[in-house]
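Appendix B, example 12.
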Amino acid sequence: MLQCPRCGQETARRSQREGAWEHFVSYFYVYPFRCQLCTTRFRAFHFYSYGRHTPDRREYDRLLVRVPLTLFGGGEQADGVTTDLSLNGCSLRTEATFAPGSTVRVRLQLGQAGEVEVHSAVVSAHRDAGMGLQFVRIATPDRDRLSRYLGRFLRPTGTSRRHGGRPRPELVLAAAVGIAVILAVLLWMGRLGGPPVQ
């Protein structure tokens, strides 16, 4: 994983390309990424071709975490448990039935980490005797608390991959592009061609 420029963690996930510019620079291995902890979206050089399509379009990893929760919606209250969880949604099992597209309020019980209140979440299609939720509105303190909780289940990071004395790939790319531009300008000006052949 790449290092997030904001929080310094190596918990970034490949994001979907947006706009013509991101599609163009991806030909030079510059892709958008989303930090799984602080939600920062950034671009970085990554010498790997992702192809034109990414099967999983999620911005965040769904972690296999079981968290008790309570759902509130349509005058109904129901208990459930997550089967996976991320910063922007979850899958869960519950005996209650909420129509896909309906809006509910969610209270997550994170144990010693406390409670997290999701003020608004949209129900997605039911599947495998469960349903999905996409978090729409969550207060910043609650989002931060959820981020810290999920950070315990992500791969141990916190250290940069910039070790072994190797230069950063994005700097190598920038230097190569700069040299290519300089050579192109010099060739255009005729300074590297030498005297004309008689």
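Residues 12-60+155-182 form one domain. Helices lie at 19-25, 140-151, 169-188.
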